[in-house]
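Hey, resending since the last one bounced:
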Amino acid sequence: MHLVSDFDGVWTDPRAEADAIRDLMESRLVEVTDLSQERVKTIFSEIEQKFIDNPFNYGWLFEGSITAYAMEDMYGRNHAIAIAIWESRPSFEESALLREAIVKISGDAERFADACFRDGRSKYRETNKSFLVSQSAEVISQLRERGYQMTIVSNSKVTHILDLFDAAEVSLDGFEVIGGARKFNLGFTPSIPETLQWQSAQVSLQRPHYLELLERLKPDAVIGDVFSLDLSVPLYLRNNRSNWRHLRAGLIKQPYTPTWVVNGNAALVAELGLDVLADLTAVPNWLDRLALK
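The structure tokens again:
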């Protein structure tokens, strides 16, 4: 049994760090605009509410196209906020002022979001040392005892992942880590359609680097917390290629998981190959059940 696992949102809870990055975005805009911290926070909150009310209209963009919807991923949410301010969607009385501030700080919205991500993460980790979820050591031990193969496939750097496991004194001996997976990179992949229709969402499948990794690794199971980035391509393969029919996908359900991913139709979702897992601790027993099929 070979498991491909995402990292952030599976082995970590990204919410506090992502919120710290969002706070840095707010602070930098306050510094340049002289708007009050309270007003900028209100604008950010109203933008997030727009994301919730209109889940398919906003997202984390890659070269102008949505690679993940705004509230699927906490880091992607921050990127989507920067884009929403840049495009004045929604519009505020201060929209022009905020856009000018982004130009002064970084040049454009994407560079602003990227710089705040980099600097905010670095600052957050200076004062916060525990990042893996508390059950990580137990789950790693169970996977190892059962003889399951695991490859962590993440957009993060390998060194970032290994450092966090080392800091928690959790050994990854016997498991593989692949960083720089570029799941968010959209490109052209002629062998698969442009999008996957999932419930009420149209999710881009044009993720050539991630597809290449999956075809090389040939996993039996894939887990992740972000449907668009982690699970859309595996589920397409599972439902459209005979040599992938055995694959199951596991969504690690988080407080930020959008309702549209399951949308109350658990039976249909399961038939299409997606199982909803309460948290990381559910993974070993889930794999046990898959191994019996």
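The chain has a mean pLDDT of 95.

Sorry for the duplicate.
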